[in-house]
Amino acid sequence: MSGPVAPKDPEKDRSYFYIMKEKETFGSLQTQGEYQGRGVQFIYESDGRLESSAEVTGEVCDEEILKKLGTVEGFKSLVHSIGISVEMEHSREPVTFVFQMYGKEDLYGGGTLIETELRGDGAEVRITLDTVKWKTDDDVPGQIRFVFETPEQSARVNVRFFLKDGFFVPKPQEERVVDMESHGYQEMIERSLLSMGDAGRIRRVVEKARAGEPVTIAYIGGSITQGAGAAPLHTQCYAYRFWKAFAGKYGKNNNVKLIKAGVGGTPSELGMIRFERDVLRDGKEKPDLVVVEFAVNDEGDETKGRCYESLVTKVLSMPDAPAVLLLFAVFANDWNLQERLAPVGERYQLPMVSIRDAVTPQFRQTKDRVVSKNQFFYDAFHPTNLGHKIMADCLMYLIDRAVCEPDILRRMHEKPVYGDEFAQVKLLDRRDGYERAKICCGAFSGTDQELQCVEMDDSLTPVPEFPYNWQYDGANGRSEDAFQMDIYCRSLLLIFKDSGAVDAGRADVFVDDTKVLTADPHVNGWTHCNPVILLEEKESGWHQVRIQMTPGEEEKKFTILGFGYVE
């Protein structure tokens, strides 16, 4: 469609709810694709996110309404029109709003695009859905995009759904401005201190910073650590804010360095493999403080805690004895894996910060609530700028408390809680070889460049994850030549690329001539790094690995991003 159509019944007081309300956005520069040279803010709404946005932001409780948001057919039967407004400094500059439906057969290319152009002057534009030409492949609401002609602009946006006759939701309540100087705010921050543990290592970091010596603060985690929900991501995320606050209070002459290594949608199972590359930068960096954030990413961890504990002990055992701080973020449904992961912190007497303990109790209050869910969460999973600020304040509260805490005798040699069998895991890819790995790539001879990219440290420049990969591309001709590797190890993990592309295919994985799994990129359905365990034994030995396209998938693509191995 070419543009918005004025609603036929503007005088009608239709019931509505917000899915985005006063949300900060930032148009990140696109370096390739259809939006090259422009700025785009992507907001993903599939996999229950739209329903969660309606619950959190729109305060919708009606189960029938929430269920309809899960499919395009339900959405069409519920929503009369969409109201969008954008407010930014350059108020006359055009902004394009796109709401993309995902397709059944062609996930990204088969669905309807609902789009309109508006200005950044805060005026609402309405799109009535009866003017939209819907496609037959429509499946589920997929993603919203705000496209800015000039990149790297900040804006405040609102998106609300006006409902068809017969549907009703209560009018939204007005939100109070968050008072960060209030007693209630301070109480909320103090609740985040789950455990001080042994503060000795943290105190040594503070003393080093105060003395003007070089100090490095590093973070490893998922999308929240990457900065998702913050706008702009690189300076409003909790990692940057905490680093800035720490350096401002305890540092001297810019002696505190930031290393940020968060990768969206990935668990500690991948974090333990990429730690040397993404945090230590292949031995070039020696962090003094490492913040570990996987409490909302590890549900899919095959080992249910052993990979997380392996990562923690890997960091603790480094020669320079860095301080380790466990951070437990939270989703909008008040969920995280704190009960599973906190025992690891207790066993090694580590400082722990719980964002769940800080914010969720006050969400249920009405009179004395400090911050609402809509104010804290950008979507179902990620914090707003304010949410990231609160997370940074919680971390600083722990640091300030640690300065005054006495040393505790740490017990590093106790039996692990879940196991640390992967603490010595290393990365194997096309660049980082292993003398006891003999590889014949067969038809997996290409290099995939369409990879998951993340913003590292304090930069907005996207960095591709696992660029030294092996790709099979059936477009270059069908082949049955398998990827083959002889490797000496006791544990082995495969990292492969997930994808929603129609030409992504499945691959069968064999270890010692036994099929161990079929790797399917469409299970997660987005460009993403997926680690899976292929082999785990008590003793090391030689093993043969064979990866080949699943019969019938030879005309498609599959990418081996790398392997994690324990000798």
Structure notes:
The protein is α+β, with helices and mostly antiparallel strands. It has helices at residues 49-56, 63-68, 72-78, 183-191, 200-210, 223-226, 233-236, 238-250, 268-278, 306-316, 338-347, 355-363, 373-376, 385-402, and strands at residues 16-26, 28-29, 39-44, 79-87, 94-103, 113-119, 125-128, 138-148, 154-163, 193-195, 215-221, 256-262, 289-293, 323-328, 352-354, 426-428, 437-440, 453-455, 462-464, 470-473, 483-498, 507-511, 514-519, 528-549, 557-566. The strands form five sheets. Strands 16, 17, 20, 21, 22, 23, 24 and 25 form an eight-stranded antiparallel beta sheet that branches. Strands 10-15-14-13-11-12 form a six-stranded mixed beta sheet, sandwiched between helices. Strand 13, helix 10 and strand 14 (323-328) form a beta-alpha-beta unit. It starts with 15 loop residues before the first strand and ends with a strand. The model is unreliable at 1-11 (pLDDT under 50).
Topology:
Layout: E1 16-26, E2 28-29, E3 39-44, H1 49-56, H2 63-68, H3 72-78, E4 79-87, E5 94-103, E6 113-119, E7 125-128, E8 138-148, E9 154-163, H4 183-191, E10 193-195, H5 200-210, E11 215-221, H6 223-226, H7 233-236, H8 238-250, E12 256-262, H9 268-278, E13 289-293, H10 306-316, E14 323-328, H11 338-347, E15 352-354, H12 355-363, H13 373-376, H14 385-402, E16 426-428, E17 437-440, E18 453-455, E19 462-464, E20 470-473, E21 483-498, E22 507-511, E23 514-519, E24 528-549, E25 557-566
Parallel strand pairs: 11-12, 11-13, 13-14, 14-15
Antiparallel strand pairs: 1-9, 2-3, 3-8, 4-7, 4-9, 5-6, 5-8, 10-15, 16-25, 17-21, 18-19, 20-25, 21-24, 21-25, 22-23, 22-24
Helix pairs in contact: 4-12, 8-14, 9-10
